[in-house]
């Protein structure tokens, strides 16, 4: 049995887009076997530089799946390839 895919959501507190994507991803966990890590970029200069105005950013490892909004089609395609 393979391990579930581990996704990372880069976000910042007080970001309504971030909270929306987080809620959508948490709801999808009931349908797809994946783990979700969240990383608040605030307070980490390297992450603030890398992601700044792009948040929320959903990644698997170094590969970006989507940012700003959860793109269900891209995520479904990613799951089918993983």
UniProtKB/TrEMBL annotation:
<dbReference type="InterPro" id="IPR052565">
    <property type="entry name" value="Glutaredoxin-like_YDR286C"/>
</dbReference>
<dbReference type="Pfam" id="PF05768">
    <property type="entry name" value="Glrx-like"/>
</dbReference>
<dbReference type="InterPro" id="IPR008554">
    <property type="entry name" value="Glutaredoxin-like"/>
</dbReference>
<protein>
    <submittedName>
        <fullName>Glutaredoxin-like protein DUF836</fullName>
    </submittedName>
</protein>
<dbReference type="InterPro" id="IPR036249">
    <property type="entry name" value="Thioredoxin-like_sf"/>
</dbReference>
């Amino acid at each position: 049995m393979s391990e579930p895919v581990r996704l990372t959501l880069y976000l910042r507190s007080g970001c309504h887009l971030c909270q929306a994507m987080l809620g959508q991803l948490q709801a999808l966990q009931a349908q797809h076997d994946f783990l979700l890590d969240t990383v608040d970029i605030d307070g980490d200069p390297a992450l603030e530089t890398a992601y700044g105005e792009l948040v929320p950013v959903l990644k698997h490892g170094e590969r970006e799946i989507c940012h700003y909004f959860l793109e269900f089609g891209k995520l479904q395609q990613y799951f089918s390839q993983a």
